[in-house]
Amino acid sequence: MTYDLGASYRAARERLSALVAAHGPALDRTVPATPDWTVHDVLAHVAGVAHDAATGNMAGAPGDEWTAAQVARGRGQSADALVPLWAQHAPTLEALLSGPNGAMASAAVMDIHCHEADVRHALGLAAELPTEFLAWAGAAMRDRLAQQVAEADLPPVSVQASDFEWFRGRLGRRTAQEVSAYSWSADPAAYLDLFFIFGRATRPLGEAQQA
Description:
By secondary structure, the chain is mainly α.
């Protein structure tokens, strides 16, 4: 059965919007996974992604300057303003994701779920990401690493870890030591630079595990 990326993004958007609404006083709390950002900054980023996708402002995506501009724009707006703007612009992205070319924008689905987990952790909550999402993300992360390993002319390697750990680890929410502690079929040292997509965490998050 095909995984509907647009529906997955929309569900995550609705969960994160409800989370922000329920924790208004905590929006200035620092997010440990992205320590330069507060919860409000994360909201500005994810809302900004939908805005930029809807308006065609994709130059530099998904680079640091593109992302920083989203956060800067959102800092002058309240959460009560950002959430409706996100809802206004998101259907364009969600329609793309649900369409035949949705896979080309699948990083947006990874991104919103990653930040959902980041925000939940910042608020002292367990991740609770949908099982269906984790199954899709885990498979995608495994397949991409296998491709990268082949492209680098390294011997094939298998890594035994939960879908949640694959997702959080590859997106930089784990340290090199934590990832090395997964069950690898070979010495992980030669593979770590490939494993981490956005760099590695400098210290453990202390994040609650999700099966």
